[in-house]
Every structure is written in C-alpha cells, then in structure tokens.
User: What shape does this take?
Amino acid sequence: MTIIDSSVLIALAIKNDSQHEKAIQVLSEVADSAQVPNAVLVEAAGVLWEMLQDAEFLGQWCQQVSERFQIVCEQPEVIQHSIERYFRQADRFSLVDCQLIEWNKSLGFDVLSFDDAVNRELQRA
Assistant: This one.
C-alpha cells in the first residue's frame, strides 16, 4: 500500500503547479494501492481553501479524491506515536508529516510525498 501526502494531492489539484504533471505520473503508477489518511485529506483541503477560497472547487475536489483513493483513518497507536514524534521533532515536521512517517516506520507503508524533508526522513533506517 502507498500513502499519499498532501503535497501530491495539492499538485494534482492545481493545474499550474510545478509538480502537477509529476503528480499525474506517479499517481498513475500507484493507483491500485493508493490510500489517503483522513488527516492528509483535511490538511490538503485546508491548503487548497487558503489558496483558492473556492467552495465549489473544493467540494468537487473532495468528491474526486474520495472516489479515486481509499480514505483511511489513522490507527490509535499510529496517532500516539505520531504525537510523540511531533513533540520530539516539532521544529522539523508537522503533525500530519509525523503521521505519514509513522505509517511508514510502524506499519511498513510506502509514502508518496513531494516534501524533501519527509522523503529524507523516510529514507533513514
């Protein structure tokens, strides 16, 4: 399974984003195994709202994401470990980033992100 980060969802949503074409390409490669944690969906929706302030677009986008990807809820132990990681590294990662890292480290999920800092952390043993 592959967990999708908000950076990828946002690039997919914004046609003039510098990563838009890359998002289309990489998502086509993981389409069958892609999952979006509910916290990532909320984070991406918040960013898109701040960027566009377009409720109609946001509603359509949420519908498309929920139809294209499986939306998953975080497991309690992942949330707990994410919070612990966040307070150990609060200056480096958001709480949602910490959740993505825990999905990878604790559960072995691949994470698809355009965030270089997150990707470096995922590569660490």
User: Anything to note?
Assistant: The two ends are 19 Å apart (CA to CA).
